[in-house]
Amino acid sequence: MSKPFSMSALTVRAVRATPVEVPMTYVLGTSAGAVRKAPLLLVDLETEEGVTGRTYLFCYLPASAPGIVSILREIETQTKGDPVAPLDLAAKLARRFTLIGVQGIVRMAMAGFDTAAWDALALAAGVPLATFLGARPRPIPAYNSCGLGLMADKGALADEAGKLLEGGFRAVKLRLGYPTLREDIAAVRAVRERIGGDARLMVDYNQALGLNEALERGRALDGEGIAWLEEPIRHDDYAGAATLARELKVPVQIGENFSEASGMATALAAGAADYVMPDLERIGGVTGWQRAAALAAVNRIEMSSHLFPEVSAHLLAATPTCHYLEYVDWANALVEEPLAIVDGNAVVPERPGNGLTWNKDAVARFRMQ
Fold first, then answer.
1. What separation in angstroms does the CA of 26 have from each of 21, 145, 330?
2. Do 180 and 145 touch, CB atoms closer than 8 A?
3. What pLDDT shows up at residue 5?
4. What is the sign of the dihedral through the CA atoms of 60, 62, 63 and 64?
5. Nearest C-alpha neighbor of 174 from the set 219, 229, 223, 216
6. I need a surface site. Which of 59, 157, 251, 315 has the fewest CB within 10 A?
7. d(CA 56, CA 328)
8. Neighbouring C-beta atoms of residue 32, cutoff 10 Å
């Protein structure tokens, strides 16, 4: 890997946050509930030098947006006039939020600020974020995660699987957690029949099961040609996850709920997974991702992404154990140039920064009132 570009001289001027709510292409039914709209928070880091770094956060609930915006205002107050040096800024903000704790919406806000800061630096250097991090833009294997929620009609589920393979995908993710194992198996087989044996199929339980039931359903899925079994039990039950990883043939995937790289280190020490998939806004932005990628490399464990495909594609290009990018199209309506998928791979753009530029008309149309 080549040496990263040197930091450009930028100074924090302001942080702007714009809450939007975008209708999803497909209703996403999970064991935790049905999601029809994506509440996102667009983050713009303005610098005194005229460069603006960008990213977005997924708020999960619209009610979360005002709280994250409030924390970002405090971040602006604390960093205004500081050099855009992400590691130093992260350390300063961690000290500021020590008493409340760098968790929840505080962690999300800090991650958004950090990611926008890295974008600003790459923009100022005139290179893609992947290049700025010492890698090169390259195709990243991707799976379509836009749909395949819990559905009673297995014919409709199969039809949706076929649609998700359109546009160049060779892998999809299916949500499980039906009331019975029989229904889970029926869903898997309906999708497999439609997508064929060459396409990869990941499944995600969204923490729906207890350990014993996860063992039972996981063993039943061992013979179904599943690429991985994602979050079958409570996300922080690392001992239980380690049992599943030992006992099941299907690989166990966790990580979207890792709280900074320290959380991932605890999980790896417990042997809790065969694969890991950190989430950009929970792992600590680009800075946290780099720490997680180093941990994955040391532990020789393949690392995928969770959400935020536009930025995650750059980060995976710079990840030694790069595995899969999770693709969702939630931000497509808001950006000038959506992430492209070709022959089953996300195409990391060659333009400077992380590639995010807002479509102002779309942002005004979807802005939360």
1. 15, 10, 10
2. no
3. 57
4. positive
5. 229
6. 251
7. 13
8. 12
Contact 184, 217 (CB under 8 A): yes
Ramachandran category for residue 218: left, alpha or beta (phi over 0 → left; psi -120 to 50 → alpha):
alpha
How far is 9 from 85, CA to CA, in rounded Å?
9
d(CA 165, CA 187): 17
User: Which residues touch 337 (CB under 8 Å, ≥6 apart)?
Assistant: 349, 351, 355, 357
Supply the DSSP symbol for 139: E
Backbone phi and psi for residue 18, each to the nearest 5 degrees, phi listed first: -125, 115
The rounded distance, in Å, linking the Cα atoms of 39 and 48 is 30
What average pLDDT values come out for the chain (369 residues) when binned by 10 residues?
60 98 89 86 98 98 97 98 98 96 95 98 98 96 96 96 94 97 98 97 97 98 97 98 98 97 97 98 98 98 98 98 98 98 97 98 96
Residues pairing with 11 in the sheet:
83
pLDDT at position 324 is: 98
With CA atoms as reference, report the closest residue to 53 among 140, 130, 129, 1.
129
Facing residues of 12 across strands? Answer: 47
Asked if residue 214 lies in contact with residue 233, where contact means CB atoms within 8 angstroms, the answer is yes
> Comparing C-alpha atoms, which of 103, 85, 51, 79 is closest to residue 259?
103
- At 348, the amino acid letter reads V
Amino acid identity at 303:
M
Instruction: Answer yes or no: are the C-beta atoms of 331 and 339 closer than 8 Å.
Output: no
**Angle at CA 142, nearest 5°, toward 323 and 188?**
95
Nearest to 278 by CA among 255, 301, 254: 255
Residue 129 — φ and ψ, nearest 5°? -55, -40
Count of CB atoms situated within 10 Å of the CB of 291: 17
Residues 13 and 48 sit within 8 Å (Cβ to Cβ): yes
DSSP assignments along 220-276, one per residue: HHTTTT-SEEE--S-TT-HHHHHHHHHH-SSPEEE-TT--HHHHHHHHHHTT--SEE
Q: Please return the burial class of 165, using the count of CB atoms within 10 Å of its CB with bins 0-12, 13-18 and 19+.
A: middle
| Tokens encoding 295 | 């941990």
Tokens representing residue 314 in the block: 């750059």
